[in-house]
Amino acid sequence: MDWNRIIKGMIRAIKLDKAFYNEVEKDTSYSQDALVVVVLVSVIGALGALVGALIRGQILAAILGFIVAAVIAVAGFYVWVFIAHYVGTRFFKGQGDRGELQRAMGFAYSPQILNLLGFIPCLGAIISLVAWALTIVAGFIAVRESLDQDNTNAALTVVVSAVIVFLITAAITAVFAALGFGISAMTGALNQ
Fold first, then answer.
1. Which end of the chain has less Cβ packing within 10 Å, N or C?
2. Which residues contact 30 (CB under 8 A, 6 or more apart)?
3. Total count of domains within the chain
4. For residue 65, is it within any domain?
5. Which tens digits make up the pLDDT trace of 69-85?
6. Is 160 strand, coil or helix?
7. pLDDT tens for each residue of 17-65
8. Where is 147: in which H helix or E strand?
9. Residue 113 lies in a domain
10. What is the three-class DSSP state of 121?
11. Is residue 191 in a domain?
């Protein structure tokens, strides 16, 4: 694994370098690198949630939140790739295999690294929103290049798939939040 290549690839992906997305789409040697990017930015983003909870003095919530945030981020990526491929190839004239899209989308996930700063009061939510917006834009380039779509079909693919993934992720997060509040209530009751 070449960390230099991964970091340079993340920078090129964030810069929306069309040539890079074409290179990643065609070169299967980027498969592991794309996976590393997804896991790396997911864990780094979860660290932001961990720090925020620790600052508030919520140690158990910090640990559980870190694990859940990292798992949801990685799972959300794979769900997004699957749905984007399905929607793009079935409804919006996309041509390409899931591996091509997965490599390109893996690097398009790079802006999620900004979520490390999500713990900053007042700015954290804005930073997370910016990271999400940049990821959507990078995802548009990745989808367009790997599924060989025009701008309109790529935009429709990204919007439809992102909305579906957002709804799925929100539902899963709500379940974990409800469980977390339940655990907090139980542990609070046991401590009194």
1. C
2. 9, 23, 24, 103, 106, 107
3. 1
4. yes
5. 888 888 888 999 999 99
6. helix
7. 999 999 999 999 999 999 999 999 989 988 888 888 888 887 887 888 7
8. none
9. yes
10. coil
11. no
